[in-house]
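INTERNAL TRANSFER SHEET
From: sequence group
To: structure group
Subject: DNA gyrase subunit A

Please process the attached sequence and return the structure record in the designated field. Keep the field labels unchanged so the import script can parse them.
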Amino acid sequence: MEKGKEGSDLFQKVIPLSLEEEIKHSYIDYAMSVIVGRALPDARDGLKPVQRRILYAMRELGLRHNQPFKKSARVVGETMGKYHPHGDAAIYETMVRMSQDFSMRYPLVDGQGNFGSIDGDPPAAMRYTEARLHALGEEMLADIDEDTVDWLPNFDESLEEPAVLPSRIPNLLVNGSTGIAVGMATNMPPHNLREVVDACCAMLDNPEVEIGELMSLMPGPDFPTGGVILGRDGIVDAYATGRGKITVRGCAEIEDAKRGKKAIVITQIPYMVNKSTLIETIVDGVQKGQLDGITDVRDESNREGIRLVLELHRDSDPHLVLRQLYSRTQLQTTFGVINLALVDGRPVELDLKGLLQIFIDHRRTVVRRRTEYRLRKAEERAHILEGLVKALGIIDRVIALIRSSSDPAVAKGRLVEELSFSEAQAQAILDMRLQRLTSLEIHKLQEELDELRGQIAWYRRILEDSSELDGVVRKELLEVKAAYGDERRTVIEDSVDDVSAEDLIPETEIVVAMTRDGFIRRMPLQDYRCQSRGGKGVKGASTKGDDEVSLVAVTTTHRTLYLFTDRGRVFALKCLALPEPKSGRGKHVGSFISLDEGESVVTFRDSVMERAKFVFLLTRMGLAKRLPVAELEGITRAGRRILGLEDGDTIARVRFTGGDDELLLTTAKGQTLRVSEEEFRPQGRAAKGVKAIKLEEGDAVVGCDVIIPGRQVLFISQLGLGKRTPYEEFTTHHRGGMGVRAMRLNDKTGDLVGAWGVAEDDELMVVTSRGRVIRMAAREISTLSRMATGSTVVRLDEGDSVADVTVIRCSVEEEG
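Return from structure group:
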C-alpha cells in the first residue's frame, strides 16, 4: 500500500506538455540568451559581455597601460575562470580583435607579439603573446570603483561583475560593432572620436538638433583602414533610420612605371577586406580574363602601410582597369549598416540621435552616481575633520578625559556623552597621533577641511543643477577628445556613380512638377512645344482624384533642386534622381528626402546661384529674411532648418540675390511693394525674419522677384489672365508698407498666382492644377499698365486653374 502511494505521487509530478509548445519556448529562451548574453552590444558602453569581462579582468589583474605586459593566457584564464565560462579560444579571439588597429578604430587592448595581420594571418598562441590595457581601454573603466554602475553576480555567484562599464568614450560609435544573433544581427561602422564628441556636445546644447546639422559635425563613418565612402545617401539613411548601405572604395593611384608603362598602386583597402584575399581575387581575375592589361601583381606593403603594385601593359588604359577592379574585386565593397543594440536588455534599432542620446544619458547617470559617492565620502571625511579641529581647540579637556578613562571604550563613550562628539569623531580622536598636536598639523587639518567644504558645495551644485551636470559631462568628453582624438582617415565624396551617370547622360533641360499631395516627377522640356497665347496646352502630369499640380520648375538633369518646406527646412536633391515615368504622378517626395510627419514641400528652386550672395526668403504672412548663401552649402537629403516660422505661416517664395538688389513683392489680392534688399539685415538660420509687406485680412504673399533692367514683371491670375508691366511703374518704398495696386482683379480673374520677371526672348511654362502644361513666348503677353486687368494667357476648362509658372531663360544671364 505504501509502495502504491509513492508511485501515485510520482505519477502526479509528471506534467504533460505539447512538444511544439516546449520546443517553441525553449528556442525563444535560447534565442534571447544569445541576443542578450553574447551577440549584441549594449548601447551604453558598446560592448558585448565577453568584451566587458575581458577589460574588467585585465583591470583586476592590474594590467594598466603603464604597467608591464602579462601573458595573454593569464588574461584568458582570469576571464574564463571568474566571469565568462565559455571556450578559451573565443575569449582570446575577442581580446585579439580589441588590439588590432585594422579592426578597431581605437584599440582598447595593447598587445605585444603576433596578434594577426590584415592579410588574415592568425595570431600566435595565447601562451606566446602578452597584453595589457590600452590607455583608451582604461577610460572605459574610469571611476568604476565609485559606485557608478550596477553590479551582477557572476556565473557561480561567488563574485560580482559590472552590468555595464562607465565608458568615458562613446565606444559604440567610435569602434562600431558586429554580431550575428538568432534572427537578427548588428553591423555598426566605426567613427572618428573628435567628430562623435562634437556631435555629443551639440546634443548636450540642443537635444532637438536635427540630423542634418549633426552630419555637418559628424559627416559619416571613419574606418581604421581609410578608404573612400562614395555618396552620402547611405549615410543619411543609416543616421535617419538605423539602416543603410554605404559604398566603400579603396584608394588607388596611377603611377609611371619602367619602360614607359603605367602601374596602379593601391594604398588603402576597404574595411574588413583581407589583403591576401584581394590579391588572390585580382590574380584570379587576370587569369580568367575579367581584368584586362595587368602583367604583374606585387605586394610591397610594410610597417608604413599598404602598397599593392599592379603593373599594366604599355597600351592598357589604366582608368578602364581601375573601373574593372572596382566592379569585379573587393577594392569596392558595400557596408550594410544595421544599428542594432541592447537598450534596457531589449534589441532596438537606433538612429544617430538615439545612439548619441543613450550614451549621453549613460554619462549623466555615471557622473551623477560618482558625484553622490564623492559627496558622501567628502561629507564623512569633513565630519571627522570637524571633530578633530574641535578636539584640538579643547585638547586639554580631551586629554584629561582620555587619561581618566579606564579603557578605550569608556573614553569613546565619555567623548560622545560629555563633549558631544559623534561616535565616528570620537574614534578618530582616539586614533589621532600625537604629531597632530603641532601647529603645522593643526593648520593642515583646517586647510583640508576648507578644501572639502568647497568640494562638497561643488558636488551639491552638480546634483542640484542639470546644466552643471551637463557641463561636467561635456568637459570630460572634450578631455577625451583632446587626449585621444586624431584626424579622419576615410574620405567622403559625392557618389562617383552619380558623376559617371552625369558624364554618360547629356545635360538636357527638364520640367520638374509636384502635386499638392507631394508626388514629384521630371519630364523633358522638349516635349512641350511653344504655343500661342490663349492655348490650352498638353497633358503634363497625371493627377489622381482631387490631387492637383502645385509646383513646377525648369532645370537640367545635371543640377540640384533645393526643396523648401512648410517647417522652414531645405533639402537638396539631384535632378537625375527624380523619376521620369511615361505616365502617372511619379514618386512621393518623401521617398527622396527625410520629411517629418505632416511636413510638406511648399516651393523648390534650381541650384544655379551665379552672382548670388544671399537667399531671400518670403513667407505667406509677409515676413522676410535675408540668409547668407553659404548656409546652403553641404545640404543633403537629411535637410537643414533655415527659417523659424510662426504657427500657420509657410515659405511663399525663395530668391537668390546679389546683396544690393531691388525686389518686387506681390500679394494674392494684387498689391505690390518695390523695396531694396538692403532694408533686410542678414540673419542666421534660427531667426524668424522681419516684416516685409503689410497685408489686409485674407491676403497672402504669392510673388517675389529680383528687379533686373531690361525685364518686365509678369502677373498671372488663377483664372488664366495676365499681363506684363514695366518695373518703372512701381516706385521704391521702405519695407513694411502695403505697396500699390499691381493688377485690377475681379471674379473673372481670381486672385494672383504670382509675379515673375521676364525678358522679351524668354519663354514661360504655365501649369494648371489638373496637370495641363502650356509653353509660350513671353512676348505673346501684352504689356499693360499696373491698373489694367490683363488679357487671357491660358484657356482653362471648367473647374481648372493656374497652379504655377516657371520662366525659361533664353538669355545668357541667369536669374538671381
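Handover comment: The longest helix spans residues 352-393. The longest strand covers residues 549-556.
Transfer complete.
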